[in-house]
Amino acid sequence: MLLLVLQEESEYTTADRVKEKMVDRATRTTLASIPLLRTKAGPRDKDAWVVRLKEEYQTLIKYVQNNKEADNDWFRLESNKEGTRWFGKCWHIHELLKYEFDVEFDIPVTYPATSPEIKLPELDGKTAKMYRGGRICLTDHFKPLWARNEPKFGIAHAMALGLGPWLAVEIPDLIEKGVVTYTQKTDS
Amino acid sequence: MSVAELQKKVKELEEELRRVKHGGAAPREKITEMSGEVVDTNPYSRLMALKRMGIVSDYEKIRTHTVAVVGVGGVGSVTAEMLTRCGIGKLLLFDYDKVELANMNRLFFQPHQAGLSKVEAAAATLESINPDVTFETHNYNVTTVDNFDHFMSRIQNGSLTGGSVDLVLSCVDNFEARMAVNRACNELSQTWFESGVSENAVSGHIQFLIPGETACFDCAPPLIVASQIDERTLKREGVCAASLPTTMGIVAGMLVQNVLKFLLNFGTVSYYLGYNALSDFFPTMIVRPNPQCEDSWCKKRQEEYQAKLAAQPPKEKEVIVEEEEVVHEDNDWGISLVDEDEPAPPPGTTSVVSGLAEGITVAYDRPAPTANTGAEEVGADDATSLDDLMAQMKAL
Ligand SMILES: [Zn+2]
User: Are strands B167-170 and A75-79 parallel, antiparallel or unpaired?
Assistant: First the structure.
């Protein structure tokens, strides 16, 4: 069913849509390798949330391992001990240069019915493809896709379906416009 | 100069000082009792005239009411201003955002307020417009765990008398915040209104939600006004959302009009009222709760409401049975039409879910979750502790 949705949505002709379409194809394969979650619990659910949090970590670890194996390692995340605040780094390789950004988000009280709103604070105000506070603007099909698949989708899926495609489309554009410039970071 | 003359001079200077301090306009003194006297110094005379004309039976009652406005943006700020001018008793304002110059295509905020928190800036302006209103501001995000309990406690204890507020008005701009308001109101059994403007700025809606009695925000996919624009031709390149002060002003007007009708008990309150700006079409409908709602508190409130109906004398029950017959057989969401005399919808609008009024559609279909990405589920009885998993993640 998921495949069907992505195909339906990818018949657009504008430049953005073509780029999204390319992203979708890659995303489809990625998605198949991210484990699905079992427990429907949000951060106010005490014990059930701890179970869910373990599942979140398990899927994230698997996803990052997959990315490394596929030579497509592109983010690191960690959380506070309650698992309500997440932060880390994501990066995008463009013409052999690594562009790295801080990423952060809170787990909303209505999670997993609503997805987390991923933020890239450094890019706040630099692109119109963002809402206030550096929240990334998701494609039209992200929300329906999340709604159809919750609670089986978790943070790893939000990264793969939300932030991944966003970076792939927006960062080259921001580099081209000169809004984002390369700066050497200490880690390699 | 005589003492009297000096006293007069002091008074004049005090008045001038007050004017300068408040940017030219002196705030008026508080008014202890609303009067209907028609004099140019009475800010309530035209409102109290509603009584004389027989529209409202007891307008002064508005001063006993408390309303919480969540989201003080394009719709919320105008909503708060209207309620302030109407002489509402108390307003609670929630928003975590700051005023930006990019907001200046909207009403209410002014360029010199850029950089201030929206709730702080709004309260300052509103207080000068009507010092009789009590304001309480909270500069935080209601969707996070840290703030949610406090948010709920203010809904529960924030009224003028320390009890529940009379209404919560959701004027937020995103799904997550609407869902948070929905959750809070379901848990607290709090009556509320939801409002929204589409991201293409040419439609909007308001919805009246009574937990258990009408659909909650989670009972069905979000209901939106059919835009007649083929989503596939809608260009979103380079922007997230457009906005117009007109659409936001109209939605705020629709919202406050229904708030006044509810609080002051006149006319009929619309359960769902849409606005299609392209054709000036205003669809209305009522949405019944979904017995399979994902929100457990919603289901609890539905049971309570059904029990309440069952306990009522049979005559009233008959009316309810009639209403329920309107529910369409093939209707997944328990959505039923009450007003069948809608004007003909503009061409090109279709309902995705049957039972929706013409011109109203769902934001997306939401069938039963059937995730099939080809992926396995995570191991259920993984003995690794959370701390170990966190450490593993860090070591990657
Ligand atoms: Zn519900």
Answer: unpaired
